[in-house]
Amino acid sequence: DCLILSAFGCGAFKNPSDHIASIFKSAIYQYAEFFNTIYFTIVDDHNTGNKINPQGNLLPFQEILDGLIVPSPINLCIDAA
């Protein structure tokens, strides 16, 4: 019931951290009902802070995901009678 994620590809592969965080945000809204808690372990090391990620990895993930509240899924009942 718990999911642990990271800034996939935002270090050595130089994916833009704000873009990856936005993709995660979209996926969280789609699949949130499957998890009680989602954790992100974000590392700022020698591979971050480059031209593509000048703010590092942590700050963009915080700005996009910190405090994100996902509404409970709505159960729909369809009466075909």
From TrEMBL:
InterPro entries assigned: Macro_dom-like
Protein origin, superkingdom: Eukaryota
Protein name per its UniProtKB record: TIGR02452 family protein
Organism in which the protein naturally occurs: Rotaria magnacalcarata
Lineage: Eukaryota, Metazoa, Spiralia, Gnathifera, Rotifera
